[in-house]
Amino acid sequence: xxxxxxxxxxxxxxxxxxxxxxxxxxxxxxxxxxxxxxxxxxxxxxxxxxxxxxxxxxxxxxxxxxxxxxxxxxxxxxxxxxxxxxxxxxxxxxxxxxxxxxxxxxxxxxxxxxxxxxxxxxxxxxxxxxxxxxxxxxxxxxxxxxxxxxxxxxxxxxxxxxxxxxxxxxxxxxxxxxxxxxxxxxxxxxxxxxxxxxxxxxxxxxxxxxxxxxxxxxxxxxxxxxxxxxx
Length: 231
Ligand SMILES: NC(=O)c1ccc[n+]([C@@H]2O[C@H](COP(=O)([O-])OP(=O)(O)OC[C@H]3O[C@@H](n4cnc5c(N)ncnc54)[C@H](OP(=O)(O)O)[C@@H]3O)[C@@H](O)[C@H]2O)c1
Description:
single chain; alpha/beta; two-stranded parallel ribbon; about 15% strand; globular; binds NADP nicotinamide-adenine-dinucleotide phosphate
């Protein structure tokens, strides 16, 4: 597949390396431009491009940047990109440590619904609940006892099927976690968040999740603080 990745940090860099290892053609972008991506290219085998070009990579576009920076993306990012191109959102909202208050989310939008609104495109939510280190190291062949499982939520059947397939290729049991309206079950602070559960554990954790956004995951007037000293 031809995969564009917007965001070349911990998750973007990890996915780029793993996808190229699997034989996919990967095009990766950051905010500073392709000339700043020499290290990432050397480590991953991906091709450095602009965000606009990554959105036109072909089959799949992974958006994996800090939540607060989503509105910085070009307004015409997906202009003319065919509807069947799958957009995967790995994002999480860290109001106290990184992103500051995002009023749309504070007002009740699910994190990925807010991302959709910003991008003007439907998204599939995946890879948001696993640490980059686990994503890099914990993949294993299908059938391995305790194989780590990852939830995938989204409304487009074909797009979700593609994301589920990529999850499996990366070495994880892919769990259909329902439509995007169910994606609060895998947001930060839920039982499935960054626990590296197997398939049974993921199903149980998704079922036990609470819709309530707790104080830790709610913005304050002082947001953002830092990961070491949250606001
Ligand atoms: N780290 C994890 O373990 C983890 C796990 C699961 C989910 N997530 C979530 O996934 C998202 C990405 O996390 P991360 O840890 O990979 O972030 P990161 O390491 O901080 O990297 C962010 C990347 O996004 C790029 N970026 C920022 N604004 C951009 C823009 N306007 N256009 C193009 N590229 C832009 C940055 O490029 P520049 O450096 O050039 O600005 C950087 O390459 C976040 O929402 C995070 O919460 C992270």
